[in-house]
Structure formats: structure tokens, C-alpha cells
Amino acid sequence: PTESGFTTDVLALYDWAKERSGNSTILFWGHSLGTGIATNVARKLQEERGVQADAVVLESPYTNIREAAAHIPITKIYRQFPGFGYLILDSLALGNMFFPSDENVKVLACPLLILHAEDDDVLPPHLGRKLFEMARSAYKDKTKVKFITFPKKLGLGHDYISFNLELPALVK
Questions:
Q1: What pLDDT is stored for residue 62 in this prediction?
Q2: Euclidean distance between CA atoms 145 and 110, whole angstroms
Q3: CATH number of the domain that 119 lies in?
Q4: Are 171 and 140 in contact (CB under 8 A)?
Q5: 57 and which of 29, 92, 147, 153 could share a cystine (Cβ 3.0–4.6 Å)?
Q6: 123 DSSP assignment
Q7: Would you name any one GO CC term (predicted)?
Q8: Is 32 part of the annotated catalytic residue set?
Q9: Of residues 24, 71, 120, 162, which has the active-site annotation?
Q10: Looking at the 3D structure of the chain, how many domains does it have?
Q11: 158 is catalytic
């Protein structure tokens, strides 16, 4: 799998769904790694086809893959060693893995909803907040960008925001 391949696959899925859905709303919903794919596809649609996504929902997002890799728990023990940036983080770029949501949200114009749990121990909530701030500062219509955090007491962590019973109403 590659970043380009994921993006191409989701564009093909979008085309397939659009062809069969009539005038139904189609939104891109990405979770974790998928948030980078969702923003890539929304940007590609907008820039290459002149089509604005109906909406983008980012659940447990990050700014870009380099920053995400620098914060995920599995890299914690390696961060202290010299060469961590070069050997681990730069190798992602050498493999053409960027997932630049931070750059993508700066050019999007569609409604954007960012969801993050305060007890996310995989991708820290400050990455979601940072992405929100970047998008909000770039969007002309600030009302199109929303950020919702879920308190620690709910225990949603990285993987269970979708279990929240209020989520359908929040997305609407």
C-alpha cells in the first residue's frame, strides 16, 4: 500500500458511489491513518476536478504522518536515540509517505468536522487541535470548521468515538 494508491482507491470508490447515489450526500470519513487519506482525496477532488466534497469528518486525526509517527507510543523508546528523526521519520518521506492533512486543510472549502477523544493514547488530542487551528485560520467561512472533543470520562480513546450514541446528532 502507498499513499498514492490509497488516494486513487478512494477516488475510485467515490466515483462508484456518486454514480449510484443520485443526489445523496457523500462525505469522506477518515479515522486515524484514514484522516490523511480523506484530506488527500478531498483536496484532489477540489484541485483536479473542481468538485468540492460534501463534507469531511476526521476522527482521531494528526497533522501529517511525520508528526504522527513522532508521537505514537511505539516510538517513545526510540525518540531518545540519535538518528531517530533520520532513520524513522525521514524514512517515511523517502517512501513518499506524507499524508499532509495540515497542508490539505489549508485549501479545502467544504465543511470539516474534527473529532478527538481527550484520552486518545495513540494520537494525542493536541494534534487534532493543531489541525483544527490550521484549518480554521485558512478557511474563509470559519463556520464550516468544527472541532469536537470527547471527555476522558467517556473512555472513548483512539478507537471508540464511533460508539458514542450522540455521534449521529453531532455529525448532522
A1: 97
A2: 9
A3: 3.40.50.1820
A4: no
A5: 29
A6: S
A7: endoplasmic reticulum membrane
A8: yes
A9: 120
A10: 1
A11: yes
120 an active-site residue? yes
Indicate the helix (H) or strand (E) that contains 119: none
Burial string for 144-164 (b: 16+ CB within 10 Å, else e) reads: bbbbbebeeeeebbbeebeeb
For the entire predicted model, the pTM comes to 0.94
Q: Which amino acid is at 109?
A: A
Q: Dihedral sign, CA of 94, 99, 103, 109?
A: positive
Q: Domain limits at 19?
A: 3-171
Strands (E), the chain: 27-31, 55-59, 112-117, 145-150
